[in-house]
């Protein structure tokens, strides 16, 4: 809206000059408002201050407004895209703010907005404004109704439609993964999805999961999230991963690929007994590094997982047998072989405190018998 320059104020003459003013000067000093007929000392856009305050419209605001909000994640459709908003009142005030038509040329503007919920999906917004126009202070208040339209955003629509960009195949090297390992993998996946969502990856969700005897397949909405999942599993549980790609279709002239992450858990797990570097080792942990205990002398054993290519799996401590303890010496113990029932002398473990006549757990291998 355009503004006109104010009518210049005619200075009044001093008391000594009042008696000398002419009839023409008297007319100029006492201005008449053409709108209401009152005398005034100044005209604003050719009318007096009171008439100008009544006729000048600071802003216009529609009676009813609409806002699109996703009922699942709370995102708000704004400027042709879905944006995150934590507070529904922010969305309501933004709708009122962007639909206000404010006059140009205002000075010292102050605006207040006060949303009041009438129902969960209808808000009344009271708007008040103070401003100055050519030295005249003006005030206006108005009310609008903002109606919340519930509409699924693009990401939630994809999730509901089974959208996925990646498949994570949980398997184990040269063995079947245990139920505990599969459950731990699923737990790590859910943790990573929550973390990626907080970082802004809206496609970080699990579309579907299927478990089999030899592992599980998990369908992930985001390839980026799938890559972070595999990295997290390797950090905690060890293993390796390889990627392959398949063409899923074409959209807007671009080819769309899906990624398959072949996740292989370590060949050895906690409790396994292996032969490596000429030693019989009970595995305690096998992530990026394998840690364990040498059963021959109870010393600690460490090595990188990549050095286990020639390791031999002997069994698991769950396969241990009970043997009768015959006698205890300083560095050795005598047991009754649970298979041949012959008395056998084996290495005494550190912190051994069993007494003769009791039963202890032993593990039989081709490299000898070891007490656990």
TrEMBL record:
Q: Where is this region: Disordered?
A: 1-20
List the InterPro entries: Nmd3, Nmd3_N
Q: Name one GO molecular function term.
A: ribosomal large subunit binding
Can you tell which superkingdom this protein's organism belongs to? Archaea
Provide a GO CC annotation, any one: cytoplasm
Which Pfam families does the annotation name? NMD3
Nmd3 N-terminal domain spans which residues?
33-265
Q: Which PANTHER family match?
A: 60S RIBOSOMAL EXPORT PROTEIN NMD3, NONSENSE-MEDIATED MRNA DECAY PROTEIN 3
Write down what this protein is called. Nmd3 N-terminal domain-containing protein
